[in-house]
Batch of 3 targets.
Target 1
Amino acid sequence: MRIAQIMAGAPQGGAELFFERMTIALANAGQDVLPIIRHDPGRLLRLRLAGLNPVEMRFGGPLDVFTTPKLRNVANAFGTEIAIAWMSRAAAHLPEAAWTNIGRLGGYYDLKYFKACHYLVGNTKGIVDYIVKSGMSPSRAAYLPNFVTDFAGAEAASRQELGVPEGANLMLGLGRLHAVKGFDLLIKAASLLPDDVYCVIAGDGPERGKLEALIAELGVKHRVKLLGWRHDTGALLKTADIFVSSSRHEPLGNMVLEAFSAQTPVLAAQAEGPGEVIRHGRDGVLVPLEDARMLAAGAKAMFADVTLRVRLALNARQRFESCFSQAVVTKTWLDFLSGIKI
């Protein structure tokens, strides 16, 4: 198959990073893949190092009248059979064409941007339900999951370097420091737990100042630490006793899947994605949204029961291997792509 993979997003969010992984996986599976991307030196380099030859385009707003015809010309010259637009901005620039257009949704986007798409796919069943309820025929909507890096072989990060005593119970949060991620709830939960419970949060963003103030206000600076951006997610997951997803809104939550791969027990607020992925009591623990006390209670129960943590971690690893590994997900994508037609 000759597949144009189209990404207009520049920030390194979960969708953007999975776009890169999936693009490379499709190429490694023997498909002819053309990445069409917004200018991003890092993404350009990573895709070139994987043996691909990306084309950069502007992907501007409503006044950008040049990207769509340029995209049509480039895709025609490539001999495109399938074009996959990732998220709204890329889909808005899709031209009507002889090939099959697919819109890939990683969230609950307004479908007005996907008018040129013959098929819509979502990375959760909840998103697919939303697509169908919004008017797309069920025969043209599909669930195509994400895969994440497999951290099974990662070496644990040094607790000494993190400022965490070796014998402490350690909670880990990961992600951009944005209000939607609910790290204020995680910090409040940590403040309700005993002094032998530490919490580290890896990430940066606009809420950092507010979170630092909250940590000081609650008097937990000695055991709640903001690490800033890190590039050792696997190592952090391996050293943590519990990974906590405290998000108020989370369409999927790739970090839950990463924790599954690392066999790190997961405690999560029941946002959309974690609520779908995690089977409560089997491969993770779910608690209500916006409830720091219930997050604290969930963590306390998990810390008190090592057998529970081991069982959750083993089941999560099995779930990762059967549903979210690169081999399984790539096959699912290829099976879908080989069966579609305009």
Target 2
Amino acid sequence: MHRLDPSVIDPARSFDRSPEAYEATRPSYPDEVLDLVPAPETATVLDLGAGTGKLTRVLVRRYAEVIAVEPLDGMRAILERVVPEARTLPGRAEEIPLPDASVDAVFAAQAFHWFANDDAVAEIARVLRSGGTFCLVWNAPDETRPSPLPTRYVAYLDELRAERSTLDSDLRFADVIARGPFGETHESAVPHDHVLDRAGLIANASSVSWIASRDDEERAQVLERLGSLLPEGTYAVPNVANVLWSVRL
């Protein structure tokens, strides 16, 4: 894991610098991901680290009751506005503001790498009923299909990510979950496309932690260079929504 200069904006909190860009340009998830998860439509489910509700809006279309917990004020304000059907609470994975055994499933979408630790796993197990499901969902590039993005644009993004990403590439989510009271993990995926125009792709880049955590001057320079590498147009970027789930023992 990279060690960041202490003067750099906390990557985990950098999303609150551009929550509207996050909401407008981050990909959602196909409803079909929930077909892969053993949770009945009558379930009460928790979306942990819900952000602006990219998965929350999918959950409310399926389950009887949805609770969304998000620590960042700016992200949570958008979540409350765009998914009013969910009950939204401030909170963090290590201190979930819910009673013991109060939900049938816990989801974490594009978020688990921020709290992949034993304290969070213990808290998730605490609020889950026995036999309930813990499910991770995250989008990633679909490398089985060709990308329409220019090679130099992608290479620069990869360079920026390598400089600042706090994601431990050796971290295996299944291993972290296995340290808690959970059974075998199951994995699957659903392919889908993320369609954005040039402005949307640049705004999307501005919302990722390894760009958003830079100071204003450097961030502006990075986005200007990204813009110079990306022609005008609409891009259907091949994505895959990954699903990993396990049942609480």
Target 3
Amino acid sequence: MARKILFASLALAPAALAAHYVFHVNDTVLFVLAAIALIPLAWLIGEATEHVAEHTGPGVGGFFNASFGNAPELIIAIFAVSGGLPEVVRGSIIGSVISNLLLVLGLSMVAGGFGEIDRRSLFLQLGVIGIAILAFLIPAVPGWDGDPERDFLYVVTVPVATLLLLFYIGITVYNLRKHRATHVADAAAGAWSMRTAVIVLGIATVTTALVSEALVGSLEEFGHTVGISEFFIAIVIVAIVGNAAEHGGAIVVARRGKIKLATEIAISSAAQVAVFVAPVVALLSWAVGPGLPLSFRPVEMITLGLATVIVGLTILDGKSKRWEGWALVGVYSLMVCVFWLAGDR
């Protein structure tokens, strides 16, 4: 019954797009409609990813979900740069990493309960995030004093972003080869073909990007109406909306007992945002607007570092526990309160 409802609710996506591009409805109405429309799209991406994993294993399956799920994030960021919203872009990048590490991983553990996880693979992804944090400090620290948008900071950002992107390519090739070497393809009966699953992922991702763009376009006015700071909108709301696919996908597969795949999705997605989305947005920003320095705020860097350490301690024993999932969600809730109090720069 639930699957039938989710399939039927996929019709909300074209309705949201029509409301945005054709009827130009009120921003508050558009925000609610687009947010609801993202739920079945996230489920569909999770469904397709699970079928991909039947052919590739959880490691590569997690990579597929993170890749397709982060496409909307990248597109939203480019739109925000071209719209002159650099703080929204930076906030959404950090918020995406933190929400995947704490909220998505936590909810996946809650949904999946006790189970074995691939500690080695997850620690590799956390190490990637740790390296990204150190790299971010290079343009971020000078930005704590003076104009965070000054040209010098973008000049510093370009080599940092380039090295992070090259690092991402190298670690991705290594990780995929490792998973391919250890996984024996043995798809379960009833699994979609690899081609069908990838096509569904592609269509769902493009649709998710369009709906997410419509939602983000209404967020600024929505924030003014309800009195929320631009920083909070970026680091919490935009981050969660832009990562709806990973959020839904990880929880769906965790509920089906595939906690190893769910944790791969959550942490792989966080790592991809840090070493792929962030540098690509920075490098492409000059083509659509002013160059975007990765001059993150102190509150962003501190909370990102804490989230990484806390998740590392959580997965240290290589097991998923429901109470640890609740603890991660609790930590995320505390950080949301910090973001609310921090306000705009």
